[in-house]
């Protein structure tokens, strides 16, 4: 282990204009695994941890504790509020000389206009944190940043206490390593709004036939009960082992863990380049390679799915048109195959205009027609009217940004909310004029599978 850099800054102004102090120290370590680090933070930081891994598996993030939180419930200002507070916090901090920059991690709810229901009552419409201890694993190296943000002077004693805590957590993570966990035991699974869901599909297809919208994504939920409180590290370990080809994420908030394994990138920004993906249109995997290829070919030629997909491509392309000096979009979709499902997939990339930021891109892109519909405003109204649940963070943007403005957000689908001995799982699908309630219902079952498996649950056909 070797200590690299520490910096203290007394010139910061926070929102109420009082001076805040910002202390950062980065430690570079040769070997440190993410989930053992997450677990080692349980004693001091349970309820204030997060986990993130990108699809390519070359960037992993774990946060323990909240050195600084940024929340917003302002319907139309939440992205700018987060952006402004983050910039304000970093003003004057010489982060460029740090081996590892401070990172802000968090999520936005799907729709602040829907209101918050019981299961989501702990969450704001924007929930972000700079971790007290932030682990970044990239290029096969691990970095632990320790952050203190305080209105008072930061004492030497405070710093050494926190660094001792950091060293203890690292030690525990290294000596204990990755645990093997037994799957949680589900004792009850219910579908709270099955009839309402089926009815909503008929209502929405009628409204689409009536010309009120072109496409609307409708979701539903499953509820699970367990014999006992389920350990968040267990759940994240199951997802980590079972869903290697997806974005993996977990965000604690008090007694809640929102977690998932999403195939879908909303946007990533690196050195002024932006990358997004259009993912919409789905079919199951085949048991044999031949059957799987035949299903894939069917999807690539299916008019309904191609149409659902095209709404997403058109909308994401027009966002890139507005924010980029140049961009590329392939002419036709390809297949994205993940464990339980195959999707139509079109990657989009471009060079951002000067001054355009990742949170501006998130605001522009969310929700794409893969999660909302087309046209956006009308589809959102119909989701508010017909969908029999509150999505909370499901289908919202989740991810991170650093001090220089690079970052990445996934669309938080294939996700669930764990609350001690209960969990809620969410899945939806694109509805167009000729959608059938029963086949949409079956498609959502496939989309529940990743979370159900991680939580020890099963569908009837397994
Ligand atoms: C809404 C979900 O998936 C979206 C993303 C990919 C494919 C979709 C589809 O084919 O319907 C959905 O638009 C979900 O997984 O809950």
UniProtKB/TrEMBL annotation:
EC number: 5.4.4.2
The protein's name in its UniProt record: isochorismate synthase
Catalytic activity, reaction form: chorismate = isochorismate
Provenance organism: Kurthia zopfii
One MF annotation (Gene Ontology) recorded for this entry: isochorismate synthase activity
Domain called Chorismate-utilising enzyme C-terminal: residue spans: 194-447
Keyword rRNA-binding in record: no
PANTHER family named among the record's database cross-references: ISOCHORISMATE SYNTHASE ENTC, ISOCHORISMATE SYNTHASE MENF
């Amino acid at each position: 282990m070797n200590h690299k850099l520490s910096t203290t800054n007394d010139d910061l102004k926070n929102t109420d204009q009082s001076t805040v102090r910002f202390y950062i120290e980065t430690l570079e370590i040769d070997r440190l695994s993410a989930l053992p680090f997450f677990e080692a933070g349980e004693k001091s930081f349970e309820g204030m941890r997060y986990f993130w891994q990108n699809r390519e598996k070359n960037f992993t993030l774990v946060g323990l504790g909240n050195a600084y939180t940024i929340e917003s419930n302002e319907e139309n200002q939440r992205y700018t509020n987060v952006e402004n507070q983050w910039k304000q916090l970093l003003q004057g901090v010489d982060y460029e000389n740090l081996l590892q920059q401070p990172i802000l991690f968090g999520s936005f709810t799907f729709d602040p206009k829907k209101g918050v229901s019981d299961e989501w009552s702990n969450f704001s419409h924007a929930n972000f944190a700079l971790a007290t201890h932030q682990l970044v694993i990239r290029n096969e190296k691990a970095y632990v940043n320790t952050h203190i943000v305080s209105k008072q002077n930061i004492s030497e004693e405070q710093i050494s206490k926190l660094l001792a805590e950091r060293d203890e957590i690292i030690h525990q993570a290294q000596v204990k390593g990755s645990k093997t966990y037994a799957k949680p035991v589900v004792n009850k699974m219910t579908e709270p709004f099955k009839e309402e869901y089926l009815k909503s599909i008929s209502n929405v297809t009628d409204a689409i036939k009536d010309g009120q919208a072109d496409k609307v994504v409708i979701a539903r939920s499953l509820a699970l009960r367990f014999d006992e409180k389920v350990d968040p590290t267990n759940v994240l370990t199951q997802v980590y082992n079972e869903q290697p080809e997806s974005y993996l994420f977990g965000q604690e908030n008090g007694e809640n863990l929102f977690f998932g394994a999403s195939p879908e990138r909303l946007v990533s920004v690196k050195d002024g380049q932006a990358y997004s993906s259009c993912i919409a249109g789905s079919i199951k995997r085949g048991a044999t390679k031949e059957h799987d290829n035949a299903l894939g070919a069917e999807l690539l030629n299916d008019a309904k799915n191609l149409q659902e997909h095209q709404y997403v491509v058109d909308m994401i392309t027009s966002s890139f048109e507005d924010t980029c000096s140049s961009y590329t979009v392939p002419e036709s979709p390809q297949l994205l195959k993940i464990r339980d499902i195959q999707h139509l997939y079109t990657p989009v990339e471009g060079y951002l205009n000067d001054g355009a930021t990742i949170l501006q891109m998130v605001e522009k892109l969310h929700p794409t027609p893969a999660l909302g519909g087309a046209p956006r405003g009308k589809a959102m109204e119909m989701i508010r009217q017909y969908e029999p649940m509150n999505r909370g963070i499901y289908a919202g943007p989740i991810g991170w940004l650093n001090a220089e403005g690079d970052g990445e957000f996934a669309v938080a689908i294939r996700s669930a909310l764990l609350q001690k001995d209960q969990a809620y799982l969410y899945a939806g699908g694109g509805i167009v004029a000729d959608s059938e309630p029963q086949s949409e219902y079956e498609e959502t079952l496939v989309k529940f599978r990743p979370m159900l498996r991680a939580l020890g649950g099963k569908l009837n056909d397994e």
